[in-house]
Amino acid sequence: MVVLTILLFTAALLCAEPLVSDIPAPAAIGAAEPFLFATHDALLMSWLEPMPNTKETALRFATYRAGQWSAPRTVVQRGDFFVNWADFPSIVEDANGVLFAHWLQKSGNSVYAYDVWLAISKDGGRTWSAPLLLNRDGKKGEHGFVTLAPLPNGGVGATWLDGRNMVEGKEEGDMTIRYATIDAAGVIRSDVQLDDRTCECCTTGMAMSSGRPVIVYRDRSPDEVRDIAVVRQTEAGWSKPRLLHADGWKIAGCPVNGPQADARGKGVAVAWFTAASEHGRAYVAFSDDAGATFGSPITIDDGKPIGRMDVAMLDAETAVVIWSEQTSSGAELRARRVPRNGQAGPSVKVADSSAARAAGFARAAVVGQNVYVAWTEQSAVTKRVHVTRVRF
C-alpha cells in the first residue's frame, strides 16, 4: 500500500501542470507595452503595435477565455502616439461590460508634450466612440501615467499625473496628480487635484476599496524626499495626502518607479520600490480598512530588486507581487505569494528579462486562481509581447 501510494503521488507530480507556463501572445512581432485587466470571466490584454509599411502605431487588444485568444482588434491607429516604456495605454471593463481605453497623444513639439485621450466601446470592442480628451487644461505639457479603475455602478475613475502647473517646454514647476470619473456616455465629472507636488514620471496606482478609490503615487517633498503617498475618497470627501511609509528616499530626480495597488473589499495591498540609503528594497503593505491605515511593509525582493512593481490580490487575505530582480546575467521577472500575516512564500521565476528600459513594466492580473503576467522581451533586433501564467 505504501509503495502504491508513493507511485501514485509520483505519477501525479509528473502529470501535474508546471507552476509557470507560457501562453502564446496574440500580438505581432515588434509589439510592446502590454497591459492586463481581469474581467468577470476572462483576461483582457492591450498593447502597442507598429503598423507595417507606415509610420503609425496601433493600440490593439484581445481577450483570453477558455484557453483561447480572440482575434486582435484595433482601438485607434495614429502617427502621433506618445510611445514610452514606462507610460503606456490601458483598457478596462466597467461593471456593465463597457470598455474604456486610454492612450497618450503628442500635443506639441517638446519631448514631453502629450495629452491623455480616451475612447469607449459598448459592444465588446467592435466599435469605439469618438476620442475624448481627459485633461482639459489646454497646456502643451506632460499628462500621463494614467490608472483607470471601474466604478461600482458603471463608468471608471481615472487618476493621472498632470503638468498643467509646469512651464511649457521646460522641466520646471510642479507636477500634480488629479482624479476624475468618466461615464459610458463620455461625460467627465468630479475632476479634482489631489496633490500639488508629486514625482514627475512614476506610475500611479489605484484600487476601488468598498466602492471608493484608494490612490497611491510617488510624492515629492520640498527637500526631494520621494516616498509613496496615499490619498483616498471617503464619505466626507478626499483625504489629505499622507505617506504610506516613511522610507526616506531622497533623490534629486524622478526614479521612474511607481507603486501599484489592488483591493478586495476593504482589503488593500500596495507594492512599491525604494532605494533609500542607496539600498534597493521592494515592499508590499496591507490595509484592512480601505486604505485608511497600512501595516508594516513586508520585504518581498531577493536582495537586488530593480523594482517595476505590480500587485494582484488572489483573495481577501493574499496578494501576489511581481517585480524585476537584477541577476548576474541581466534581470528576471519574479513573483511571490504574500499573505497579509507576512509569511511570504518562495519567489518564483516568471521569465528572464532585462534591466534595460526597453523591457518596460510587467503587468499582472488574476483570473480564478491563475496569475497572468504580460511583459516585453527586448532582443537585439526587435520587441515581442509575452504572457506567462503562474499557478501558486
Topology, element by element:
Blueprint: H1 2-15, E1 20-23, E2 32-38, E3 43-50, E4 57-65, E5 68-69, E6 73-78, E7 90-93, E8 99-106, E9 114-121, E10 132-133, E11 143-150, E12 156-162, E13 175-182, E14 188-198, E15 205-209, E16 212-218, E17 228-234, E18 237-238, E19 242-243, E20 260-264, E21 267-274, E22 281-287, E23 298-299, E24 305-315, E25 318-327, E26 330-339, E27 348-353, E28 363-367, E29 370-378, E30 383-391
Antiparallel strand pairs: 1-30, 2-3, 3-4, 4-5, 4-6, 7-8, 8-9, 9-10, 11-12, 12-13, 13-14, 15-16, 16-17, 17-18, 17-19, 20-21, 21-22, 22-23, 24-25, 25-26, 26-27, 28-29, 29-30
What does it look like?
With 392 residues, the protein is mostly beta strands. The two termini are 30 Å apart. 4% of the residues lie in helices and 50% in strands. It has one helix and 30 strands.
Structure annotation, total helices: 1
Estimated structural class: mainly beta
Unreliable stretches covering 5 or more consecutive residues: 2-18
The outline comes out as: globular
Q: What fraction of the residues are assigned to beta strands by DSSP? A: over 45%
Radius of gyration: 21 Å
Give the % helix: under 10%
Main sheet properties: 5 strands, antiparallel
Mean pLDDT across all residues, rounded? 94
Counted beta strands: 30
Intertermini distance: 30 Å
